[in-house]
Amino acid sequence: GVAVAAVAGAGVVATRTAEVFELLGRSPDLTGRFQIWESVLGLAQQHPVVGWGWIGYWAPWVHPFQGLAVRSGVTYLQAHDAYLDVLLQVGAIGLLAFAAFVVTTYVRSWWAAIDRPQHRRDRVEPYSTLALAPLLLMTALVVQSLAESRLLYEGNWLLIVVIAIATKSGMVAREDVPGPDDARRRAVRPETAPASAVAPSPHEGPSIPAAVPS
What we know:
Structural class: mainly alpha
Radius of gyration: 33 Å
Oligomer: single chain
Shape: elongated
């Protein structure tokens, strides 16, 4: 049922694109984003491996950003897509590293949301609503990054770094949770036998009792 609904929805969007965007209050070219993306891709192809160098928000007085994205007299200072912006500035190498960072952080956020917290290996706690926060924030950031480049700058970049650190430290702490079996696994140090209990060596003869004076 869900798959059929998804296919039907995709068909409506594909055949009624103009009406769908009009309903959402957007133009069919996503407010000029298609034109900006085309310009960015054309420029990125000139230095596809390492890019043009990191600059953050575009400086329109610096080559090659002069006149790169101008629409209706407005100069845009970003690619309106975080991944295209990364590709333009630091190339395919930077894009792969950035994508890996986003994907791994999102996966850890997912596991943090569905894993029940543990304070001991033999005791599972109830689900926590707060554990959904990283996943919800990551979903919002990833969706926004498809039409905006704000994920790379200011508070959004700081937020994804905080989520990455928090989810990673949470997984490490979960792996180090102690349990009752840990003490049993520890090797017990053998006690030293007293000297009187040591058996005689087979090379030694039998002990001869001392003579008792009459």
